[in-house]
Amino acid sequence: MKQFDRRKFIQTTSLSAAFASSTSLFSNNLRSSNQKYMGNFAAPKLDKIKIAFIGVGHRGIGHIMRFSSFPNTQIVAICDLYETNILKSESIIKNLKTYNTNIKLKTYWGNENKWKIMLKETDADIVIISTDWNNHGVMAIETMKNNMHAFVEVPMANSIKELWEIVNTSEKYQKHCMMLENVNYGREELMFLNICRKGLLGELYHGEAAYIHDLRYQMYEEEIGTGSWRTLQYEKNKGNLYPTHGLGPVSQYMNLLRNEDTFKSLVSFSSPALGREKFATENFSANHKWNKLNYQNGDINTTIIKTYLGRTIMVQWDETSPRPYTRLNLIQGTRGILAGGPTRAAFDDGFEGFSNNSKEWLKGDGIDALYEKYDHPMFKRLNQITKDLGHGGMDGIMIYRIIECLRNGKPLDQNVYEGCAWSSLIELTSISVNNNGQPQEFPDFTRGNWVDTNTFDIIP
Ligand SMILES: NC(=O)c1ccc[n+]([C@@H]2O[C@H](COP(=O)([O-])OP(=O)(O)OC[C@H]3O[C@@H](n4cnc5c(N)ncnc54)[C@H](O)[C@@H]3O)[C@@H](O)[C@H]2O)c1
């Protein structure tokens, strides 16, 4: 349902003029004549999907298992810094029932540039990038230049400059570049999307999103693994370093970047940085490398986004505080509210017998009944085959959908502009935090074409 009158909005705000006159630091308004908008892009159908991997650590190995669980996939090459990760992955792949001995698996490891050779030598259809945050952007760009679709772990890239280059390369080479935002496929998130699309919350005007996950234990991964590189980020950068998990779903509930509304500006503040230094002092020797870092980035970052229609989204990020996990996952409309972890809901008078009192959360049997009636049809169709494939099934649904869309020549569920806009918070929040919360304009990676982009509908 169109909750706002877009046409009226465009008339009254003279939207195109607003874009043309944008003075944003990051505006990049001209699309070259050899580029084409990718908002509704569908690539030619692929029968069997040949896959290469860059980065087969914790997350990359998981993706190998997931892709291999489904038919019509063939892993053709893997690359990592470390031989141990390559040997582990190779053994998993060669023990698959579906392993095709006629196609030799190519392996690359040993230094940080081997992936470039892999891209040149490999005839894959898609490349899955699951490396640390430092090189997602450049790897995605080179993948597309080598004629393959890129699928990039979160976030898409760290800088606005790189995000623009991703957009321009995707438009020029007509290749998908999808950020692997798995949270959009969570059962709760899919049900909320279903309820929002049915218009049952009324007009949506506020959301709350977060990645609040105490990851201090990762600091024990001192030489290799996630903590070995992620810990350094708390010294290097300020702002929200990991904004996409909570924001992706809220963005799709509100239909942002897809013909209804889009990101406009944000303000951002961070708390003092206390927890990492405390953890390092208490758990590592005085001369340990973690005790030599100058932890700069506040333990909790809070950002408020304003959309073009004036809606608000609060986004929080905290990987340090001693507190339970949450993504907040809250969406407020004129008829009620949905909130996550655990699932809660409250509706105004007389909502289908579920609730007649918006002052109390629907709980227990009420929530079960809500799931019974409004579970997303995609979740109902795929849960049985994906439920054991990671993060309660969301990872499996994401990979299944990628294969399904590519094989049927359909647009992917998340387009390149969504991945870029959600990731752009990293630099925008950093600038805002460093300037006492000064408002920052979002770059419009669609160059105004979001108004023509199809809604991500309810796909059965
Ligand atoms: N969506 C999710 O739920 C989720 C969960 C965990 C991690 N992630 C993301 O996945 C990515 C990887 O995280 P991880 O936990 O697997 O980290 P990890 O350290 O376990 O794995 C990263 C791998 O990348 C390899 N690598 C780094 N630079 C390379 C290069 N130049 N060439 C080849 N290989 C290179 C490393 O050797 C390592 O094996 C991160 O972006 C992280 O944010 C997402």
What does this structure look like?
About 35% of the residues lie in helices and about 15% in strands. By secondary structure, the protein is of the alpha/beta class. The chain folds into two domains: about 50-180, NAD(P)-binding Rossmann-like Domain (Rossmann fold, 3-Layer(aba) Sandwich), CATH 3.40.50.720; about 185-450, Dihydrodipicolinate Reductase, domain 2 (2-Layer Sandwich). The chain has helices at about 5-15, 15-20, 60-70, 85-95, 115-120, 135-145, 160-175, 185-195, 225-235, 245-255, 275-285, 365-375, 375-385, 395-410, 415-425, 425-435, and strands spanning about 50-55, 75-80, 105-110, 125-130, 150, 175-180, 205-210, 265-270, 300-305, 310-320, 330-335, 335-340, 345, 440. The chain contains 16 helices and 14 strands. It is globular and about 65 Å long. The strands form two sheets. Strands 13-12-11-7-10-9-8-14 form an eight-stranded mixed β-sheet. The chain has a six-stranded parallel β-sheet with strand order 3-2-1-4-5-6, sandwiched between helices. α10 (about 245-255) packs across α15 (about 415-425) and α13 packs across α14. Bound molecules: nicotinamide-adenine-dinucleotide (NAD). Nicotinamide-adenine-dinucleotide binds near residues 82, 115, 130, 131 and 153. Nicotinamide-adenine-dinucleotide binds near residues 59 and 82.
